[in-house]
TrEMBL record:
Region (Disordered): 30-50
Keyword Electron transport annotated: no
InterPro entries for this protein: MdtP/NodT-like, OMP_efflux
Record's subcellular location: Cell outer membrane
Main location: membrane
Species of origin: Luteimonas yindakuii
Superkingdom, natural source: Bacteria
NCBIfam families, alphabetized: outer_NodT (TIGR01845)
Name of the featured protein: Efflux transporter outer membrane subunit
Classification via PROSITE patterns: PROKAR_LIPOPROTEIN (PS51257)
Lineage: Bacteria, Pseudomonadati, Pseudomonadota, Gammaproteobacteria, Lysobacterales
Membrane topology per record: Lipid-anchor
Length: 475
């Protein structure tokens, strides 16, 4: 390669990326408390242990693997199947691959692109036909990045790739939570179906007894019709829950990306699937910054800020280099003979003078995009804080509801036993027995519903704190 072209390329590479016009990254001000307030569901801690507790929760929640958090092996297997075959997650993974390729394309603009070529030029007319052969290696249109435009575009592409990667993690986190919630919902609906079927059998027996007593004159027609009303109510509930169970299985099939092995489905009871310790009091809110969706928003902000640097650089002159080195001859056989070497070097300078306001408008748009990204980043932090706050508050409320529901069921069951005994002894009317049956049935249904809500809320809290994107925690 000739000395002038070699020197020009060396200077170009040295001068490329000498400056950048990217502004400082603005600081987010989400206006949220520094920590979550203590609730009865959080563990108390002394002032000296607060930092240690916060660090423990930060690593124990956001980094704990979903196989460590969900204790049931059937649910673990179902989550694993979903992560392998779910189509939404597959699209998110492919989006990461696309963003990685886009970043590599943009990064390639920072180095010269070398190309080899061979050319035949034949001219003729009134003059004799003349052939010119040439072979060369050259650089075409390489821009000297004196003001950091290419560098900023590459940095923006990198941040967009990182944002897409975090979005894929967020999609995985959401999928894990959806599968766990769907699995628990199926367990609850199966339990409600079992309760409805058992209640239907019991009420059919009561209706048969009431009809026999009515035939013997020991019960009125009103008693029979009231018993029949309870039977049909239970029959309708059983049919409704059977349909809901089928819908739950269909939902899990969609999430899993294919048929689900019946052995992976839950039993007819809401199991305790989550393994989570109480959160310490005064948990700092900056643990939210490790959530994938918030990290994606931060990368989006950095990408938008880099675009401002590229828009600013467009106001300044740009220099592009084109050059080649090779051989040229009028005869193909003499193309590589001595004395046929040739080289060319063509720098070009573009100075923007009048663009009709295009450059200022582009800078204004880039600035607005940065401000929008900043607002979205702050909003994602606020939304994350609210999700955790809601889950913590609901956890405390649900603990009380579960305890009250268990006591209510005990009382309703005892009431039904006493009412049945008094009715059999002729001390109470049939209406009082029916009320006791309704109360016990409603207490059973309510306890299943509140237990489901408690389990789903634990999953929501795990997701809100950024857990679920790793299979196993750190050892």
């Amino acid at each position: 390669m000739s000395k002038p072209l070699t020197l020009a390329l060396t200077v170009a590479l040295a001068a490329s990326g000498c400056a950048t016009l990217e502004p400082p990254l603005p600081q987010a001000a989400p206006a949220i408390p520094a920590e979550w307030t203590s609730t009865p569901g959080t563990a108390s801690s002394t002032t000296g242990d607060a930092a240690a507790d916060a660090d423990a929760v930060d690593s124990a929640v956001s980094d704990i693997g979903w196989r460590d958090f969900f204790a049931d092996p059937r649910l673990q297997a179902l989550i694993g199947q979903s992560l392998d075959h779910n189509r939404d997650l597959r699209v998110a993974v492919l989006n990461v691959e696309r963003a990685r390729a886009q970043y590599r394309i943009q990064r390639a603009d920072r180095v010269p692109s070398l190309g080899a070529g061979a050319e035949l030029l034949r001219t003729g007319g009134d003059a004799p036909v003349n052939d010119a052969y040439s072979v060369g290696l050259g650089v075409a249109g390489f821009e000297l990045d004196l003001f950091g435009r290419v560098h900023n575009l590459g940095a923006a592409a990198l941040q967009q790739y990182l944002a897409t990667e975090e979005a894929q993690r967020s999609a995985q986190l959401a999928l894990v939570a959806e599968v766990a919630a769907g699995w628990l919902t199926l367990a609850a609906d199966q339990e409600l179906l079992r309760i409805a079927e058992a209640t239907l059998r019991s009420r059919e027996a009561s209706l048969s007894l009431a009809e026999r007593r009515h035939a013997l004159g020991g019960a009125s027609a009103l008693d029979v019709n009231q018993a029949r009303t309870l039977v049909e109510t239970a029959r309708a509930d059983a049919a409704r829950y059977a349909g809901q169970v089928a819908r739950d299985v269909n939902a899990l099939t969609l999430l899993a990306g294919g048929p689900v092995d019946p052995a992976l489905l839950p039993d007819a009871a809401v199991p305790q699937v989550a393994v989570a310790a109480p959160l310490p009091a005064g948990l700092p809110s900056d643990v939210l910054l490790r959530r994938p969706d918030i990290m994606a928003a931060e990368h989006g902000l950095r990408a938008a800020n880099a675009h401002i640097g590229a828009a600013r650089a467009a106001f300044f002159p740009s220099i592009t280099l084109t050059g080649s080195v090779g051989t040229a001859s009028n005869e193909l056989s003499g193309l590589f003979d001595s004395g046929t070497r040739a080289w060319s070097f063509m720098p070009a300078v573009n100075i923007p003078i009048f663009q009709g306001g295009r450059l200022r408008a582009a800078l204004g748009m880039a600035t607005a995009d940065r401000d929008i990204a900043l607002a979205q980043y702050e909003q994602s932090i606020q939304a994350g804080f609210r999700e955790v706050s809601d889950a913590l508050a609901l956890q405390t409320s649900l603990d009380g509801q579960i305890a009250a529901g268990e006591r209510l069921l005990d009382a309703a069951t005892r009431t039904l036993e006493l009412s049945q005994a008094r009715y059999d002894a002729g001390l109470d009317s049939h209406l009082q027995l029916l009320d006791a049956q309704r109360g016990q049935y409603a207490a059973l249904q309510g306890l299943v519903a509140v237990r489901l809500a408690g389990q789903v809320n634990q999953v929501s809290l795990y997701k809100a704190l950024g857990g679920g994107w790793r299979e196993r925690g750190d050892i």
